[in-house]
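User: Need the bound-state model for L-homoserine:
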Amino acid sequence: MTEPGFVSAFAPGSIGNVAVGFDMLGLAIAGAGDRVSARRVSDPGVTIREVRGMDGQIHPSLSAAADENTASIAAKSLWFAAGHRGGIELIVHKGVPLKSGMGSSATSAVAAVVAVNALLDEPYPTEDLLVHALAGEQFASGGLHADNVAPSLIGGLVLCPNVLLPRMVSLKVPTGVSSVLVHPDLEVSTADSRRGLAKTYSQEQWLTQQGYIAGFIAACEHDDLDLFAKCLRDELIEPQRAASIPCFPDAKAAAMRSGAFGCSISGSGPSIFALCADDDAENIAAIMKQACQDAGYECQSWISPMNSPGACIETAK
Ligand code: HSE
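Assistant: Bound-state model below.
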C-alpha cells in the first residue's frame, strides 16, 4: 500500500542477454517486480526510509544506505539532474529475488526513477530515465549494460547495445511466443560472474554470434519462427557460465525436447529461461522445474508474454 504523500512505481524483472545478445538484448517479464515509493522532503539529498522484502519485513541483507542501494543511486542521479530544491525519501519493496539473474538491481533502479520522475515539476519522457537507472545498475553489477534496465523501463524485447546508448530500440516480438523463467534456489553475483568471463574471442566466435544476433532481429521483424529458433543461441557466454548452475544442462535439455525455440541462462544466472509457443509454456515450465528439483534445487517459475509491459506509476500524486 502506498503511504499518504508518496508516489509508487512498479518495475518488472527481466531476462538479460536473451541468449543471443550478451549485454545488448533484454526482455521484460510479468508477475515479478519491485515497487518503490517516493516523496519530496525539505532536507536536501536522497534517503531510503526502509527496504522491505517479499514477506513485508525489513529486508535482511539489502542496505538502506543511500550510496549503497541501486534505487537511491538512480534516484539521486535523476533528482540532481532535475535541479530541484529539497530532497527525496524512498521506500523500497523488493519483489525480485537478489542475485537471481532476473535483473533485481536494475528493477529497483527503474522503479525509483519512475517514481521520482512523477514528483518532478516537469517530468522527463520515459526514455530519458534510462541513463539515471543505469547509474544505479552500474553500481551493483560492476559493468555498464542496459539489458535489464531497458526492458524493465519500457517493456517488451529491447535492443540496447552500449555503442548506441542512450538509444534503445523496441523490437517487434513474434506472434504466439511466451517466455518461461525458472529460478532455482541458488545465488550468482553478476559482478563476480562478469569478472570470470573471457575478455578475448576468436574471429570465428564473434562472427558466429554476430550472425545469430542479426538473424534473430530479422526473425522478430518478419515473424519468422524457424529463423528465430535457429538464432536463439549463445556460443560465447553460456558455455562459460553453465557450470555455476548445476541443474542448467538438464533443464535446457528438457525444455528443448519439449519443443522450446531456445533455452539459456537469464543474465548471469542462476535463472534459466526458455522461449516457446504460448500453448507449450505451462508444460515447459513444469518440466524445467522438475529437472531443477531432480538436481536438488527448489525453484519458482513465471510465464510471460513477450510484450509484457514496462514500469508504471501505481498511485497518482
Ligand atoms: N548482461 C549482463 C550479464 C546481465 O550477463 O552479465 C546480468 O543480469
